[in-house]
Amino acid sequence: MQEVNIAQVFIVSIIASSSLVACGGTPKKESTSLELQAFQAKEFEAPKAVVFGSVVSVFQDIGYIVQSADRETGFITAGSPSEDKTGFWESLGGVSSSGQTKATAFIEEIRPGFTTVRLNFVNTKKKSSLYGQERNLDEAIVDPETYRRAFARIDDAVFIRTGSQ
Q1: Which are the contacts of 151, defined by CB distance < 8 A and separation ≥ 6?
Q2: Which of 11, 25, 40, 141 has a 20 to 30 Å separation from 121 between CA atoms?
Q3: Model-level pTM?
Q4: SS3 of 26, please?
């Protein structure tokens, strides 16, 4: 009968358990619509006109180009300047890519003096080949930190606007 080396058993068990983790992995958790809404929306204690102006101002401050803004409907669309997103392998294959971040905001007065803002950010990428083929790739930004930072800036702008009245 052969003696079992504890070190060998330990190493084999580590390899076996790590291969099980590699096979199964942890799937990327998709956010539900309620989870998205939880970090994409925020309520402000201010009139709709103040909040609307603050959102437009923040979009401009972070370098976005405001494409449309309608205070009555509360809808704003904006986008960052386009930039080259061509990767090394794409350039070797004769493909060029460009893209930007697009943003929408919906501002709604829910009761007098209280306004809700819902933001949505999307990264876009447009690929073009030498032969005229084009492909658009859009990916929603679902990182809560992105929205937290945007709302912090809007909060500051609302504070400044309400403090100066």
Answers
A1: 42, 117, 119
A2: 25
A3: 0.73
A4: coil
